[in-house]
Write a structure and sequence with these properties.
The protein is mainly β. Helix content is 2%, strand content 38%. The strands form 15 sheets. Strands 51, 52, 53, 56, 57 and 58 form a 6-stranded antiparallel sheet that branches. Strands 43, 44, 46, 47 and 48 form a 5-stranded antiparallel sheet that branches. The chain has a 4-stranded antiparallel sheet with strand order 4-5-6-7, with no helix packed on it.
Length: 759
Amino acid sequence: MIRLQRLTTLLRRADPPQGRKGRAGLAAVVAGCVALMSVVVLTGAGDPNSGFKFSQSGHWVYNSAIGRVFHLDGASRTIDAQVPLPAGTPGAQVVQSDTDAYVLSKSRIDQFGKSDLTVTNPIEVPDEKPVGLESAGNAFVIYQQTGRVMRLGEHPATAYPGGRLGDPVVTSDGTLWVLKSDQGDLCQLPLTADRMSCPASVQKGHKGALTAIGAKAVFVDLTADRVYDLTPDGFGAHVDLSTDVPETALVAGNDVDGRIAFVDRDQSVVHLIGLPDRPGQKADAPITTKIPKGHYDKIASSGRGLALLDRQDADLVTVDRDGKVGHRKVGSFEPTGDQNKVEPNLFRGDDSKVYVDSGKGDNVVVVDQDGRAEPVHIGSPDDGGVPDPTKTTTPKPSDKPVVPTHTPEPPVKSTPPANDHPNKPVVPQPPQKSDPPRKEDPPQKEDPPQKQDPPRKDPPVKPAKPVIQAGVPGAPGGVSAKYATDGPAVTWRAAAPNGAPVTSYQLSWTGGSKSVSGSTRSTTITELEGKTGYYVTIRAVNRVGSGPAVRSNQVKKAYAEAESPRELVVSHDGTSGQLTLAWDAPTMGDGTFVKYTVSIGSASATPKVSTTTTSATVTGLKDGTTYTFYVRAITRAPNGDTLSGKWTSLPGKPIGADERTKRVVASRGAGTTYEDCVPPQCAFIQVRIENLQPNTNYDIVPYVDGKVFNEGARLKTSSEGHLLVDDRFPCNMVGHRVYVTVTGPGGPFKSNTFTWKSG
């Protein structure tokens, strides 16, 4: 009897150990920046978005019954765009790159732009149903029988490894791996390469499969029960599995939260096996889950869940992060000319969600990253889809024309005799005889008979022009990112409004987002951290909703700049017209220290003062006027480039008289653990208050990027007006701007603003 174990221990991340709670009142005051600020951080060994990368969102679906391609937003489960495409074949899969989508029919690929939804000339390809993949903003098409590999997108390439190909995988950095089934060669196509290399070969007679674990690919040797790392030079370290896995097992192409998923179809069980951190150790004991019997031939990981498809019976089985097994039918079968049925398809998108398309594309089951499934109807304007933004609405023949509310009054007509036939023309009547004039009266001339105009026909009332229904905007064009002093500078062209003006553009990246006005065409992302490559995604918004997302090219720093100077303060403010600032030296990153600069008004302003010490006196100021000072370190990279460090800002004003300097200083304090806030990113915000009113209550509130993320605390100063707060506000907002405000007598006061860094 096989023991059924829940996947909870694997798929639900363990709660972090509780760190110190600090002094009394911490539990009542602490909310933590993670709790009250919505930020998505996509990390983890099993996440293909590990590192700073933003994936293509959603999934394009071809509905062969009505000849249209629909874009399904994976988060909202709604249709937000559609393209007419009558030339596709039933069961055609659709893959997308940063800028385009590709409908994979037999013998052809139809391509259209995601910004203008314009279909271009088809690409001629082999007459077989291909395998489609997405990763790192590129689309991959593999013809397994013909032995052809195509990469579509920013780095197009076509390779011919030759012979029959096994099931391919693609890592999170866009490297494709595939097994040449006949020769046993394991071949790779890195994202920037235009040809494949085959650095490793499987032992003759051994069976196995490929799996991607984040940016790493491994080969699972099912004959030897062994897992090999794959490198550009061939096999790397290996790990022996802790259990006997049958050679007929189905292996998921991506890991489940860092573990490899095996399906033993004979025993109807799923095994999840974790790999050790160091080579030479044995793999973890398997976590086993019983599933319904079926003819499973497709399996995919959604990150922390699993989806298994029996295409023969159109059965989908899911296993969510809590170990709950779900089942649903995903048919409809679409008959083709040879009476064969078009089977449903299981597809893992670049957003890590799994999309299970029905045979004719009229329904899709979305399996989210935790393994929960939800069906979505894919239709047309008549049955629930969105209108085609490229076409106007034309009344149907059965529709009555729309008559304007104001109708012109008809002209005044002569009244025909009552006994006239209504269709006869009106004949003028002869003049009636009048009495002869009296002698005393002069003769009166009779008026000549009035000519009667024939009846006038009113012009037909034209139907009112049909109202064009507004749709979501198109995709921004020409999205590009280039590293500048303070981070990636992102530029783009205007998106098509589609009947409603674009009100804003929303930019997103791993760990953050921002919104700019609809007239903006460029912005700088300042909240990024580290040297890992970034992708920035942008979508247009109007009153109808959000348009398709477009992702930028990858931007990556060659060398890390200096961190923010620490604890920036006004060290002397008693001299008229000047202030002296002081700070602690920051970490210099990859560069060699050159100098510090002090600017006024903005970080990019021309420096007012340069110094090689950790203090500077700024002159030429006006007493009583508040200035904002920006201090940053300048370093020289190993290649000779000048690097401008992250800045720290501080408001201050000269007062021209000696008095105790009032200070509120914020900095990164001791590391801590609180709920989802864990080291090395997590630490307390330390707040040092000096020379405010003694024995007085002040309200202290922390901010991130200008928004309150913690309700704060009311605390009392000492008899000297000092206060140190070092255990109240845990934060892990790496790369974001942090400061605190202190409100009370003599205030409000604002601390320095600095960039949060990992410990």
